[in-house]
Write a structure and sequence with these properties.
By secondary structure, the protein is an alpha+beta fold. The protein is built from 6 helices and 11 strands. It has a single domain, classed as Hypothetical Protein Pfu-838710-001, CATH 2.40.320.10. Strands 3-7-6-5-4-8-9-10 form an 8-stranded antiparallel beta barrel, surrounded by 4 helices. A two-stranded antiparallel sheet has the order 1-2. It is globular, with a radius of gyration of 18 Å.
Length: 241
């Protein structure tokens, strides 16, 4: 159940972050709104346990063909702009916590969407399992500026093309981040459901990748001396057909 709280000013948000301390669950709240000097953002809280597998592929078109043959539903395609935040001392990443602001613009000209997401440390299991708390915000840029005002620093910014499908209880993402290749993510309610979809779309032979996009792209920036840690898609990036 979501509860609506009165609009709050930046001191309230600052106190919420300070109460979080080193415990990422301090970020959690009910459905709320905030206003501050850098703009206004309305937030809608969703709490989930993210269970998914990430697979590296050579091309997306064979996967699309198998999705169509299996009766999957295409949900659309977006170009994302992701910004990752940490404390200045790097303690969030060191503890396995991720903070992200994402703006996603549909390639068909639909309404853009922005979210603020906090992911907890990975849990034990063959696939990636993390508690995820996500709020939809009315202005991704304002959300990022609020985090800066609270003392968080931007550690990585990157574009990503994402084409989404659904099959059974699972959601399948055909992902193209910059510079590091093509990927498929399958998210579902449990490991057996995810494995079934993985087999159905002909990817059962591929092993789950433990590394996140943030880790892979951060490593790319370090290896290639990209000081501003900002990566965009090339003009000739893959487009869905």
């Amino acid at each position: 159940m979501h509860t609506r709280l009165p609009g709050t000013s930046s001191p309230w948000l600052r106190s919420c972050a300070l109460r979080a301390g080193n415990n990422w669950t301090g970020f959690e709240s009910a459905h709320f709104e905030w206003n501050c000097r850098c703009g206004e953002a309305a937030l809608y809280l969703a709490v989930t346990l993210e269970i998914e597998t990430k697979l590296r592929v050579e091309a997306h078109e064979p996967v699309r063909a198998r999705l169509r043959a299996a009766g999957a539903t295409r949900l659309g395609e977006v170009i994302e702009w992701n910004e990752i935040f940490d404390r200045a001392d790097g303690s969030l990443r060191q503890s396995g916590v991720g903070v992200r602001v994402r703006s996603a613009a549909p390639t068909d000209g639909g309404t853009p969407r922005a979210t603020l997401t906090v992911k907890g440390p990975r849990q034990a299991g063959a696939l990636k399992r993390r508690e995820e708390r996500e709020v939809e915000v009315s202005d991704g840029g304002a959300a990022g500026r609020i985090l800066h005002l609270l003392g968080y620093v931007s550690i990585l910014r990157y574009e990503k093309r994402r084409e989404s499908w659904s099959l059974g209880d699972c959601r399948i993402e055909l992902d193209e981040p910059p510079r590091i290749g093509l990927f498929v993510e399958i998210e579902g309610p449990d490991e057996p459901s995810i494995r079934r979809v993985q087999e159905t779309i002909g990817l059962g032979h591929l092993e789950h990748l433990q590394a996140s996009y943030v880790r892979m792209l951060s490593a790319y920036c370090e290896e290639h001396g990209i000081a501003d840690r900002s990566l965009r898609l090339p003009d000739n990036s893959t487009r869905s057909s």
